[in-house]
Amino acid sequence: MKIGIYPGTFDPVTIGHVDIIKRALKVVDKLIVGVAKETYKDNMFDLSMRTKLVLGELDVLPNGDGKRVEVKPFEGLLVDFAKHEKANILIRGLRAVSDFEYEFQMAAINTKLYPDMETVFLTASEATHFISSRFVKQIAKLGGDISAFVSPRVAQELKTYFEVNP
Fold it and tell me: In the sheet that 30-36 helps form, which strands lie side by side, from edge to edge?
């Protein structure tokens, strides 16, 4: 069985992330979306909320594919999480050429730490390659329209967050 892990902070989850999830299901039998606790980023939403938001996006997956996806928070090394979940494929999305060098280095390190796991890069689709969580947060903070980048559910959570945390 091909078990994939798609890790990230998902702060917040965007339509670009959902696109990668949909496409990853063409490559794996089961997909675990790993929501990372520890990151070098300053997360806006806590781990629980980020996990909840990703879970809420699974209802848009076609043909009941949501049943093949699990969303799990994790902490520590990604390879340890992958071993624990018996995952053998790591899914990574690439938006631009600038992402490749970093992701290529991470793939090499992960292979050294966990040789049984292969990294599969999925390039962002033409419709989503420019979307980043960082830009979505900036636009939302300034009161801009983010409806083309996130689901209505996520947009509402961002609006609520910035009403409380201007």
Answer: 69-74, 30-36, 3-8, 89-94, 118-123
Angle formed by the axes of helices 152-164 and 133-141, nearest 10°:
50
Tens-place pLDDT, residues 47-100:
999 999 999 999 888 888 888 999 999 999 999 999 999 999 999 999 888 788
Domain range 3-126, its CATH number among 3.30.70.100, 1.10.357.10, 3.50.50.60, 3.40.50.620 = 3.40.50.620
Active site residues: 17, 41, 95, 133
Q: What is the SS3 assignment for 118?
A: strand
> Residue ranges of the domains in the chain?
3-126
